[in-house]
């Protein structure tokens, strides 16, 4: 394009500066505003996966990254008059289930959890088509990012009604209920009425339904404030565990899922298992959170799969070795946690024994988040290979030059085992620079 710097080094360093803006005028500001509107994250135990679908009920799926309309739909559906309307139509009631990052936000933020019509979290973006193929999704509402363009084909075949709740995304043959904050209650009522109509068609057609009978227990709702509160209002217990080597460091494993490694999430799962076995605490965000949840790594019992140091810490606190921070936008709260830890230690963020990885990245948001992490001085791992290999200068700038400027750097690695080793080596180097113990103390 014209009017952009054509010098690649200047362009990349400008992108890193924009990463700071992405964080503090984008992600973190969004997180704080959503907490004001929806309630701060609350640590609790819940269940997720497709088995939460109930053929006897009207099932609504909320998909995307902006949960405000979905929460209003849940709030309205929880009222007795709407549950009565559902029963009058022949259903056992209405439930609204979250999906992808919008689902993570609904599951993690405190304001939704106790609403009667909230049904739980379904999964990550690769499962959208499978959800519709169950035959009992009556309405699938979505907004920007991570709604696959094939859904109209599945909706037609399996009878689901598709509704866009934001003008930025429109699919062929689907209705758009544009997001207008002042009219959210009215919009929610319209969506619920459409769901009742869709259920009526399902009942009239006597549609064949199959719901996989699988759900997984998970502990979610971690964020800066609830984690700090769980530690007694101070970061000192966590810092002590890092200092004595029980916890070697922290890895934030975030982002999307891809089928390039086989089943979506398989690379993420192998990396997370390898990290906790080396006493490295893992924070998860985005579709990565769903992978950690349905594989059982967000259960306190997963402590048994950790190294002895992290196992002891998890057992004493009753927490899992993978802390789900929720959605990809909640990476802003991960940064918030890291900055508070750095402040408590009296060091800059680049000194922390921390690495950030997106082992199955897909969305463009990952690029902005990577720029943020590089600006804060962290090692950033991505896979599959990003579209930067056409220029040796670009590759060198991202993987070497930025580190010489006191920034972080990019690292690309496809092998899960090699990735775990690189994370661990980087964390040990940072520990050495901080003068911390060279070996775990158990």
Describe this protein's structure:
By secondary structure, the protein is of the alpha/beta class. It has 2 domains: 8-39 and 217-434, Rossmann fold (3-Layer(aba) Sandwich); 50-205, Rossmann fold. It contains 16 helices and 14 strands. The protein has a 6-stranded parallel beta sheet with strand order 4-3-2-5-6-7, sandwiched between helices. A 6-stranded parallel beta sheet has the order 11-10-9-12-13-14, with helices on both faces. The chain starts with 7 loop residues before the first helix and ends in an 8-residue tail after the last helix. The mean pLDDT is 93.
Helix count equals 16
Q: How would you spell out the order of helices and strands?
A: HEEHHEHEHEHEEHEHHEHEHHEHEHEHEH
Widest beta sheet: strand line-up: 4-3-2-5-6-7
What is the typical, i.e. mean, pLDDT? 93
Strand content: 5-15%
Residue windows where pLDDT falls under 50 for at least 5 positions: none
Number of domain modules: 2
Name of the level-1 CATH class of the largest domain: Alpha Beta
Give the gist of this structure.
This protein is of the alpha/beta class and 442 residues long. Helix content is 45%, strand content 15%.
């Amino acid at each position: 394009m014209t009017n952009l710097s054509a010098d690649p080094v200047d362009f990349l360093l400008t992108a890193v500066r924009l990463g700071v803006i992405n964080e503090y005028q984008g992600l973190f500001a969004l997180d704080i505003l959503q907490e004001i509107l929806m309630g701060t994250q609350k640590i609790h135990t819940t269940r997720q996966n497709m088995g939460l679908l109930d053929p006897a009920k009207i099932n609504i799926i909320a998909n995307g990254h902006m949960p405000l309309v979905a929460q209003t739909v849940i709030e309205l559906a929880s009222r007795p008059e709407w549950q009565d309307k559902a029963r009058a139509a022949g259903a056992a009631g209405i439930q609204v289930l979250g999906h992808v990052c919008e689902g993570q936000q609904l599951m993690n933020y405190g304001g939704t959890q106790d609403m009667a019509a909230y049904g739980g979290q379904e999964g990550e973006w690769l499962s959208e088509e499978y959800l519709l193929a169950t035959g009992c999704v009556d309405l699938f509402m979505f907004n920007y990012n991570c709604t696959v363009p094939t859904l109209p084909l599945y909706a037609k075949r399996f009878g689901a009604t598709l509704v866009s709740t934001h003008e930025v995304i429109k699919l062929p043959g689907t209705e758009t209920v544009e997001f207008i904050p002042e009219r959210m209650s009215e919009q929610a009522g319209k969506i619920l009425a459409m769901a009742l109509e869709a259920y009526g068609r399902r009942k009239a057609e006597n549609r064949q339904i199959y719901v996989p009978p699988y759900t997984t227990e998970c502990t979610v709702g971690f964020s800066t404030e609830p984690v700090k509160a769980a530690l007694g209002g101070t970061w000192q217990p966590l810092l002590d565990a890092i200092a004595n080597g029980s916890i070697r460091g922290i890895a934030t494993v975030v982002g999307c899922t891809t089928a390039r490694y086989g089943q979506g999430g398989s690379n993420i799962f192998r990396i997370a298992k390898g990290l906790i076995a080396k006493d490295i605490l893992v924070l998860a965000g985005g579709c990565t959170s769903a992978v950690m949840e349905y594989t059982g790594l967000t259960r306190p019992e997963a402590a048994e799969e950790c190294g002895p140091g992290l196992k002891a810490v998890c057992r004493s606190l009753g927490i899992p070795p993978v802390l789900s921070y929720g959605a990809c936008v909640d990476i802003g709260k991960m940064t918030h946690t890291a900055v508070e830890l750095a402040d408590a230690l009296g060091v800059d963020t680049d000194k922390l024994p921390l690495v950030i990885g997106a082992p199955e990245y897909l969305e463009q948001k990952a690029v902005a988040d990577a720029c943020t992490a590089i600006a804060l001085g962290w090692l950033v791992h991505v896979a599959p290979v990003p579209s930067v290999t056409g220029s040796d200068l670009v590759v060198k700038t991202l993987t070497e030059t930025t580190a010489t400027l006191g920034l972080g750097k990019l690292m690309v690695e496809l092998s899960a085992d090699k990735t775990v080793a690189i994370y661990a080596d980087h964390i040990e180097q940072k520990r050495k620079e901080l003068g911390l113990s060279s070996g775990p103390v158990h």
